[in-house]
Every structure is written in C-alpha cells, then in structure tokens.
Amino acid sequence: MELQNVLPADIEKRSMEIIAEELGEIQLDPEKLSIIKRVIHTSADFDYARTLHFSNGVVEKALEALKKGATIVTDTNMACVGINKPGLNKLGGKAVCFMADADVAERAKEAGSTRAAACMEKACEVEGPVIIAVGNAPTALVRLDELVKEGRIKPELVIGVPVGFVNVVESKEIIMKTGIPYIVARGRKGGSNVAAAICNALIYKLTR
Amino acid sequence: MELQNVLPADIEKRSMEIIAEELGEIQLDPEKLSIIKRVIHTSADFDYARTLHFSNGVVEKALEALKKGATIVTDTNMACVGINKPGLNKLGGKAVCFMADADVAERAKEAGSTRAAACMEKACEVEGPVIIAVGNAPTALVRLDELVKEGRIKPELVIGVPVGFVNVVESKEIIMKTGIPYIVARGRKGGSNVAAAICNALIYKLTR
What we know:
Chain A is of the alpha/beta class. The first copy, chain A, has helices spanning about 10-25, 30-45, 50, 60-65, 75-80, 85-90, 100-110, 115-125, 140-150, 170-175, 190-205, and strands spanning about 50-55, 70-75, 95, 130-135, 155-160, 180-185.
C-alpha cells in the first residue's frame, strides 16, 4: 500500500473530490451540498448524505445570521474549539460554550437537569442573534424546545446533531417541530465534530 | 415518539447497556470491551467493533504508562479538550496539543510538511513517558513512524484514529508495523472524538 503524493495544501481539495465521486448519482441540493460534504469529510461516514435534514430556506437564514455577527452557543467545549475562529471573527461573530461555568453546574443541580439543559437557559441571556449548535446532549435540544415555546429564546438556527442512545433520536424529532430553522442529523449519529463541521461549512460559504 | 425518563446520572449507564445489547453475539476481549463500547458511545457507530485493532498487550502497557503520569500529545485541540482532565490529573498526567504553536507553523513551512507532522517532531522533546493520540492527520502518523525509526521518540502507545480520504487508510497500516504499542481504527473512520474517547476509556479504567 503506497502513500499518495498530495501536497498539504491540496489534501482537502482531493478529499472533497473523492467524496463527490463516491456520492455518485445521489442528487443533492447544491446549496446543501457543501455542508453535507464537509460533514462526510469530518466523519468519513456517507450515512450523513441521507440523515442530514434541513428546514426550508435554512441555509440562507443561517448565512444572514452569520453576517449579522451571530453568537454560536455550543453544548460542548470540543465543538466550540472546532469552530473556525478566524472565519467567524471576520464576520463579527463568536463561539461560546457554558458547560464549564460554575453557575451552569449550580442551575443544573437545583433543577435536577443536565448541565447541557442549563446551558440552554444561559443561552437565553445572550444578546443579539444566536445560533445553537448541539453535538452531544439531547437534553439540550429538549430544553431548547421548551424555552422557545415559552418565548424565552428565538434562535436564528439550531444545529441539532447530538449523538447517542438515550433520547437522541427523539430529541431531534422534537426540535424539527419547534418551528425554528434547523439542520438536524436524524437518527443516533452526530457529535461535536459534526456540529463544528456544519458551523464551518456555513462560515466558509461567506469567508473563503 | 416519547422521551424515556432517564435521570441525568443514569444516561451513560443506560447507553452502555443498549450498546452491549446491540453488540449481541459479537465476542470481544473483556479488556478491550470498555474501549470499544466507549468509542461506539461517542460515535453511535458499531463499525468500530470491527475496525478497532489492538497490538498485543497494549491495554496493560497503556495503563502502565498512564500510571507513570504520561503526557498525551494530540494532533488537534478538539481531542485535547475532549480528554477527561480530572481523571488524567489524578494520575499525574497531562494532555497537550502543539497545533497552534508558532514554532510548529514555522517548522511545517520550512519542511513543506503539515503542522501535524511538525507536532510530532515537537513531541520528541517532551520529557517522560509519552502517548500519541492522532484523531485527524494521517501525516502525523507517517512522520511519527519515521521519527520512531530514527530513534528520536519511543511512545508508550499510539492511538491512531485519523479520519479521511487521503492517505488515512495507508497511514494506519504503516503505524501498525512500526513496532510500538497501538490502538488503531483501520479504514477511513476515526476522529478527534474517537481519539479522546479511547484516552478516556483508558483513564476511567484507573480512576472510576
């Protein structure tokens, strides 16, 4: 087995070509294609061509939010770290994660909820347009659905890609009915890497 | 579709039970089982039951290294952030990532290599036992193989789980022949989340 001789700068381009080749005959909306391809690029998992679901006009709405300098709130530090900061900063936006905050731990303890759910409450206090990116905790999506219905938060976009086995599938179905623009990976799969990849695909549409 | 009523503290336990049920008749070495289950827990991808490969006696060697306070060097900040710090600190270890270091960018530029490859060179300067965890860049594994052969580094363990389409499969086959203890996800799949999950599964064996 021989290594291919690909220059560092060309690795991503070559990867995207391979992904496009292997997607083959699958017809995908060109607007969504770069997002789907970037998620496959980060996971090597072609299931996402089938499982990623987009609400009507969500890409345009997401790009509008980013242009307004939206704050991306993630449910893990991994997702937050994975988001392309130079690109986001160029748009005047920022990425934050409240999971390690002392007041979040306290809120969760008092409410008997998860810290991820408490993070969504803290997200209600963020000023300006907000994008919620959930790559880990279904409890964050369930709480977000409640907060939206209570009128406490109105995100420009929710990226709903938690991963796992308990209430993950259900939480995604719930958030798709909440009435906010969404990009969701239906089923069990997802992750912080997938959440960051979707954010980055959107950011790159505006900055590359 | 109804949400299951599972207490926050019980979500992981219930997830692991579901994973064990669905692994079904697959016979797995008990020593490796908790590592495989944690990777599936972090990815919801049962492929890893088949693709994760372990060198002889690697788990025992890895635990010895962690007990000696090994430094885990990752190739992404995402993997570094995902490693359980309270557990690792309890063992006297630490996790580091050199990807954002100015001298690494410079080395890479001079050598015409990737920053990930330059990170492996910097890893040679780490004092004490070292564990290398690669969740992203195949070029890190290829360079590591060279550095081991040149006698410049002798890791206690390499976690080789880069993800992608260009030289990823090949880099894993190379590192499995280098002669150092390894845990490798053969094939294209892997990721920073998988690298962190393997580290955490090992850490939890000693601290939970």
